[in-house]
Structures are given as C-alpha cells and as structure tokens.
Design goal:
214 residues, alpha/beta, Rossmann fold, five-stranded parallel β-sheet, three-stranded antiparallel β-sheet, 9 helices
C-alpha cells in the first residue's frame, strides 16, 4: 500500500492538491485538518474553550465523522461550509497543541490507510502520523500569497472580510503551528520541499505525481 503525505502551512493549497492527486491515482483521501476543525466546531457549539480538554475528549468519543464526495459530515449533517470560518480555524490550531487530543485522534487518522493507497494532507502527516510514507511533501508559499488565496475563498461567504485581516490570521496561524510543543509544523530531509507560489493546482499535482516511485 502506498501513502503520500502533503504537509504545509495554512492556504498552501495542500488540501486541493491532495484531493486531486487521490482522484488521479484512485487512492483514498484524508483531510486531517478537517478532523481538527470538526473537533473545533463541535467544541464551539458546546460553548467550550481550548482548555476544556476532558469535555473535548468526551465529544471526540461520540463524534461520527465521514467524508463523502469532498464534503464533511458530522452525524449525517453537512458541516463543510461551517469548517471554513476563521473562528473554527483558530480554535482548531489551539486544540491541535494538546498532546492528549492529538493522541486520541492518531489511530483514527491511521485507519484511513487502506489499499490501494492514501493521499493525506495536514501539518504533521509526514512527521508524526505517517513518518514512513512513500512520498512526503512539504508544500508552501509566502504568507502574502497564501493570504491572497484564502481571501479569494472567503470573500464569497463573508462580504465584510478584508485581505489585511486574512493576512494577519495567516501569520498568527503560522506562529501557532510552528511554535506549538506537540507535533509542530515542520519538515526534515525526508521531505520534498515544494514552493508552489507560481504553480497552478494542476501543475502542483502533476509535479508531485512525477515524484512517485511506485
């Protein structure tokens, strides 16, 4: 069984690229960030904060999460659009700092690795969840370029959002993700570093597939 991991900072395009690669190769797909965003969303809905660890763990134990056709469902309710909210993203980043929560979700993520193969994206897929993956990519671009991408995604749903606020959010997320003590966003020599600032999604996907040795 083959595993491709695509890690990277917020709005690097890793999710869209990973889904496209999975479709092209006929592999399963796991969006790890969606898992944390779902936990964040149901925690916010329960009026919890990131320090309510025991209560969040209880929610995780009852969580019924499925991925169907690019949509995310919790207890058969489509929450895909709700997961895009900046509040949910920030809460997810805070929750992801906690070792206990990360360990509780680790086996859940690894359960997606089934034949013929898996393409997964996140912030610690290659470093922690699947350290022995066949191909590990670290996908990145400058904070300004990533903010521009994120702004184009969000303005359709939030007419009041500004590019400046999105950039500030991207910078804050980068700081949280790289400085957290538990599984920080990072890469080493076992990864292929890929800056896709001047590449389309299709070009990025084709380049990554060209790196596959299977």
């Amino acid at each position: 069984m083959q595993i491709i991991t695509i890690d990277g900072p917020a709005s690097s395009g890793k999710g869209t690229v990973a889904r496209l690669i999975a479709k092209k190769l006929g592999f399963h797909y796991l969006e790890s960030g969606a898992i944390y965003r779902v936990v964040a969303l149901i925690s916010i809905q329960a009026s919890l904060n990131s320090l309510d660890i025991d209560k969040i763990l209880a929610l995780i134990d009852k969580m019924k999460l499925t991925f169907v056709g690019g949509r995310v469902f919790v207890a058969n309710v489509d929450v895909t659009e709700s997961l895009r909210a900046e509040e949910v993203g920030m809460m997810a980043s805070l929750i992801a700092k906690n070792d206990v929560i990360r360990k509780r979700l680790l086996d859940f993520q690894r359960g997606f690795a089934t034949t013929p193969g898996l393409v997964t994206d996140g912030r610690d897929m290659g470093s922690v969840v699947f350290p022995n993956a066949n191909l590990k990519i670290f996908l990145t671009a400058s904070s300004q370029i990533r903010a521009n991408r994120r702004y184009e995604q969000l303005k359709e749903y939030n007419k009041n959002i500004t590019l400046d606020n999105v950039l500030k959010g991207i910078i804050a997320r980068d700081k949280q993700d790289t400085e957290r003590s538990s599984a920080p966003l990072t890469y080493d020599s076992s990864f292929v570093l890929l800056d896709n600032a001047n590449m389309s999604i299709e070009e990025t996907a084709r380049h990554i597939i060209s790196l596959c040795k299977f």
